[in-house]
Amino acid sequence: MALPPLEPWRRGFDGQPLHRLLGIRADEIGEGYVQFLVAPPAGSVERTVSTLAITTAVDLAVVMATGTTVDHRRESMNGTAEINLTYAREPGEEAVVRATVQHRGPALAVVEVRVTDAAGAAIAFGRGTYSIRRGAER
């Protein structure tokens, strides 16, 4: 898959109302990985990142990391099969969500997820699996 240019990808992602509402911002994307930054939205009275925002960012990261490995001429994204996320501690003022494809088979991608604070200390660990459907060559 051709990766999107970084700045237009960031602007498009960050411009989505749900992402703005939850404080999820695009940071990095590459073949087999994606990274988001999560912080309370501007003007929020909250001082810590919500676990809802982190969980949403994890799901988006699993989908997008997998999407960077899909050949859209012969395959299509089919849906999240499973996600698990274990929190090691409460989130603070910012979280970094990074998803990395660990295995890519013909019908399934296994994605490792790591959530840290800005200093790199662990907040949560997880794994997701994403279904890929093979289609007729176009």
Report on this structure.
This protein has 138 residues and is of the alpha+beta class. The protein has one domain: Roll (Thiol Ester Dehydrase, Chain A), CATH 3.10.129.10. It is 23% helix and 42% strand. The chain has 3 helices and 6 strands; from the N terminus they run H-H-E-E-H-E-E-E-E. It has a 6-stranded antiparallel beta sheet with strand order 1-2-4-5-6-3. A hairpin with a 5-residue loop joins strand 5 and strand 6. It is globular. It starts with 5 loop residues before the first helix and ends with a strand.
CATH homologous superfamily heading = Hotdog Thioesterase
| Percentage beta strand | 35-45%
- The CATH class turns out to be Alpha Beta
Estimate the helix proportion, in percent.
10-25%
Number of domains: 1
How large, in whole angstroms, is the Cα Rg?
15 Å
Give the overall shape, derived from the CA principal axes.
globular
- Following the backbone from N to C, one meets helices and strands in this order, namely HHEEHEEEE
Q: Within the largest sheet, what's the order of strands? A: 1-2-4-5-6-3
CATH architecture: Roll
**Can you summarize the main beta sheet?**
6 strands, antiparallel
Question: Might you state the CATH topology name?
Answer: Thiol Ester Dehydrase, Chain A
Distance between the termini: 14 Å
- What is the typical, i.e. mean, pLDDT? 94
- DSSP strand tally: 6
**Low-confidence segments, ≥5 residues, pLDDT <50?**
none
Determine the number of helices (DSSP H or I, runs of at least 4 residues).
3
What class, by secondary structure content? alpha+beta
